[in-house]
Amino acid sequence: xxxxxxxxxxxxxxxxxxxxxxxxxxxxxxxxxxxxxxxxxxxxxxxxxxxxxxxxxxxxxxxxxxxxxxxxxxxxxxxxxxxxxxxxxxxxxxxxxxxxxxxxxxxxxxxxxxxxxxxxxxxxxxxxxxxxxxxxxxxxxxxxxxxxxxxxxxxxxxxxxxxxxxxxxxxxxxxxxxxxxxxxxxxxxxxxxxxxxxxxxxxxxxxxxxxxxxxxxxxxxxxxxxxxxxxxxxxxxxxxxxxxxxxxxxxxxxxxxxxxxxxxxxxxxxxxxxxxxxxxxxxxxxxxxxxxxxxxxxxxxxxxxxxxxxxxxxxxxxxxxxxxxxxxxxxxxxxxxxxxxxxxxxxxxxxxxxxxxxxxxxxxxxxxxxxxxxxxxxxxxxxxxxxxxxxxxxxxxxxxxxxxxxxxxxxxxxxxxxxxxxxxxxxxxxxxxxxxxxxxxxxxxxxxxxxxxxxxxxxxxxxxxxxxxxxxxxxxxxxxxxxxxxxxxxxxxxxxxxxxxxxxxxxxxxxxxxxxxxxxxxxxxxxxxxxxxxxxxxxxxxxxxxxxxxxxxxxxxxxxxxxxxxxxxxxxxxxxxxxxxxxxxxxxxxxxxxxxxxxxxxxxxxxxxxxxxxxxxxxxxxxxxxxxxxxxxxxxxxxxxxxxxxxxxxxxxxxxxxxxxxxxxxxxxxxxxxxxxxxxxxxxxxxxxxxxxxxxxxxxxxxxxxxxxxxxxxxxxxxxxxxxxxxxxxxxxxxxxxxxxxxxxxxxxxxxxxxxxxxxxxxxxxxxxxxxxxxxxxxxxxxxxxxxx
Length: 789
Prior knowledge:
Pfam family, one: Peptidase_M1
Number of strands: 31
Structural class: alpha+beta
Signal peptide: 1-20
Number of domains: 4
Helix content: 25-40%
Organism: Pedobacter kyonggii
Largest sheet: 7 strands, mixed
Shape: globular
Number of helices: 19
InterPro entries: Peptidase_M1_aminopeptidases, Peptidase_M1_dom, Peptidase_M4/M1_CTD_sf
Oligomer: single chain
Protein name: M1 family peptidase
């Protein structure tokens, strides 16, 4: 053991000296603070949000319950509604006003919050382009408030500011109190396919019918929170929604031949479905495959007849943050159940789609919904709601229990593999949003990545479990490389407000998803990551998390210090570019005679004596457990203490076999047999990209076998630009490859390889005795310090 330790000590000594020299050659290279704690970058923990990342003992959030009645006028493309809102103030603060969102004002030319970007005169364009650039006056879109009263019917004063409305309260709403008020409103429904946006209608000229997607359709409460007070970011069409949980009862009056899909459960199917449809729906509850409740033939027939009668559908949804619905006579409707074992919940998975999507959606949509609900439940929390559904509406957008996706076939009913995979990716992504942010309810208006990025990451896991060869575009590290290669002036940190991001998709979706996948596969490992990620989901289900809550929980639940990763990947724009600069190769040499003095020994300056007696020195001398003398024989643990007091002598100019040096004898044959056939390598790396990451090294030996060494990112702690790693191998290495599986998003793989015969040098190995630790030490350097002791 002593002989082996001595050899190891010599190797470590040599490595430490090289590190010290690297730092000296690169002044300032160790001051980038890449491994410093985030500290005050994160908000100070408090009784609402703890340092562990969990909600605190005084965490609170507001509540808003809705009772809504509305009517869809298909002929005039108008939606009219009235709602009663019960707002509960769970905060410790008295409120003198409340804020509501009027997101439909996005489409208004005089009430929108679309702060204008720079525009230029196009060289070539269409009349539609000119219409968009030259529109003036009121285009008639936006929500009209026709009445606003308290529970007693008394008018309430209000102020509309772009896409938000402030309601002034007659008396302050104190902590624990409720305020009930009524709003009547209407708005002209926009053509979603030409105007854009998430909600509106799509018109099908071939059959003369509409497909309505009713989203952001009712005045709804803004979030009042412990971390920002009232959420006051206007809706510009990009940053999505910050919303308050509550219960909904919604009644929609629509043409009698329409089918309605909605957030929540329908409580009057017996009144709105015909006996055949109701029988099929009941059969679907226990089916092993999707059951068509409205068939393709029935949907085509419905398209030819436009009823003038009306039906009212009634839905309830509990503990949701939003409510959306769809209505059309074009729909085929199918359903099947999915059991969630963890909470014994049976979810009705459903799809609504037109004939244009039949050959795709009938085969895949509802099955993909079921697969998504089950898989996300495994990685986060058990799905708590009774329904999950996918609506084909030529777009992609998410709401509680319902989402709108694309996926139409060609006119002849055929489709390409890319169209199929694109549809599956969108369905998985949008259904997955039920978890982020519909349950883990982050502020999308401020931090798009907290829902889109986290959701894209679990989408990737879900796609992989759907099809191991699925062509995922978000999650694998190599897919973000092109983005990371961009010039710095085209990049922003992930921690950027939604409205200010230039490259929205890579920044808010792909890069955070990739970062989480790197954490899971390369840095933390699946077991630690999965446990911590589930803990974050559990802690913040039905609550309002902020970025610090995620960062802190991932560390708290895993026992991993990840501040360096959050700092680099989320707060920075540096890419990963690790270069394998050189490979040194040696074979161990075992000389029988001592080396000549001048070539193998160096002068050691006598260390200066520090006259200051600090408390640690005093207590060390008083501690009976610490021995400074062992029968007047030098004790290795305190060489300099004894050397300075003449208890041991060293000839600093010439090496001889004196008692002080105790003679370095030749290594016996056992050690020669053990190390004589080893191959010694030193790999030198540089961090050219700036982002510190683990170094993954693949050795290919001359016999064709391979071996991988995974070096944690902490190897860069003492020098963020240069580092090295020493290896003792049983076989000769033919080639070396850094990051063989492209796990770190390295932007330049041309500097990741080494191959060929290195120039061999000799590594001389000696048996060490007392005093031998000074061999090879630089002048004036304390060997215990240099060795990192």
